[in-house]
Amino acid sequence: MMAMRRFTGAAIRACSSSSSSGYFARHLHASSGESKKIVGVFYKANEYASKNPNFLGCVENSLGIRNWLESQGHQYIVTDDKEGPDCELEKHIPDLHVLISTPFHPAYVTAERIKKAKNLQLLLTAGIGSDHIDLQAAAAAGLTVAEVTGSNVVSVAEDELMRILILMRNFVPGYNQVVNGEWNVAGIAYRAYDLEGKTIGTVGAGRIGKLLLQRLKPFGCNLLYHDRLQMEPELEKEIGANYVENLNEMLPKCDVVVLNMPLTEKTRGMFNKEMIGKMKKGVLIVNNARGAIMDRQAVVEAMESGQIGGYSGDVWDPQPAPKDHPWRYMPNQAMTPHISGTTMDAQIRYAAGTKDMLEKYFKGEDFLAQNYIVKDGVIAPQYM
């Protein structure tokens, strides 16, 4: 952490020597009252955009902030076209001030794009997660990176609980039998189990991990968690979960492993063939964190061999997942598009949180401390 502080501090000092770029120029400019160019990158909802007034996180409804932004004289460009040198986003990179994106249709902000974005000051995630941004490049350039922390934690935790039950009860094949006009109870029952009495381990016990453990308590499971920080004893007792400091000790004990950690250079590809091999044969895995935490081919091979008995999640690498992505065709999978954190309730929360941060940005005020991913050239510890 200290090494990163020294690195970013050096970058800040180097950049501050120029009046046209760098941390101090960008930071001071952010508090001025002039018109800003804001670009939002969201998915298209097409015919679904008008079916629910709370469907805010799409291109068509643009977080519900267009009229508010334009009434204050700001320019608001929204697109879903974000890939390649000729995409719509690329056209606006040189002169935008703020870029808003979501984890569900992320705009990948590379060091190259940051270098081109001479006016860029603020990168906002409407939702949670900023691994689509090169955080070291953002810190060195003096950019502020923030998310709406907590906006969809309930949504994701509930979704994880659902996926555990779907895998444990072998639900998807049963559903497919009904759709296909079949009736074969044995074909489902032979790998369906009760959740009660099973050992569930979460790798990461932040906001989402804690909520999941709380929701699992009534099922009578043996609850384990691994995290860089141990919970307070009172909370640990209330939830009924036990801390395991060594991940290698926890994994072989688990019937179900749930991933709840951010994607960093340390966690990228962390669950490779060796790590998966440390788990129980037939383990169930739920991953709503980030697809790249798993080694793609290692998951495929473990599913085919039966080392992994079932895999469910809504995160892929890359996103959107191409049609030939091998996870689409694995046996015993219950995959979906990235939907867990974008319920209508979550969209209301992250749209409101984005508007609140924009208001503070226009006024030159600080955000809630928990929302910062990069501030003053320093990356938040959980992303280190």
Write up what this structure looks like.
The protein is an alpha/beta fold and 384 residues long. Helix content is 34%, strand content 15%. It is globular. The strands form two sheets. A seven-stranded mixed β-sheet has the order 2-1-3-4-5-13-14. Strands 8-7-6-9-10-11-12 form a seven-stranded parallel β-sheet. The chain has 15 helices and 14 strands. The protein has helices at 2-15, 23-29, 66-71, 88-92, 111-116, 135-140, 153-168, 171-179, 186-189, 207-216, 233-239, 247-250, 273-277, 296-305, 344-363; strands at 37-41, 75-79, 98-101, 122-125, 144-147, 199-203, 222-226, 241-243, 256-259, 283-287, 308-313, 333-335, 372-375, 378-379. The longest helix is centred in the last third of the chain and has 20 residues, at 344-363. The chain folds into two domains: 37-149 and 343-383, Rossmann fold (3-Layer(aba) Sandwich), CATH 3.40.50.720; 152-335, NAD(P)-binding Rossmann-like Domain (Rossmann fold, 3-Layer(aba) Sandwich). Helix 14 (296-305) links the parallel strand 10 and strand 11 (308-313). One of its GO terms (biological process) is formate catabolic process. NAD(+) binds at residues 207-208, 227, 262-266, 288, 314, 338-341. This is Formate dehydrogenase, mitochondrial.
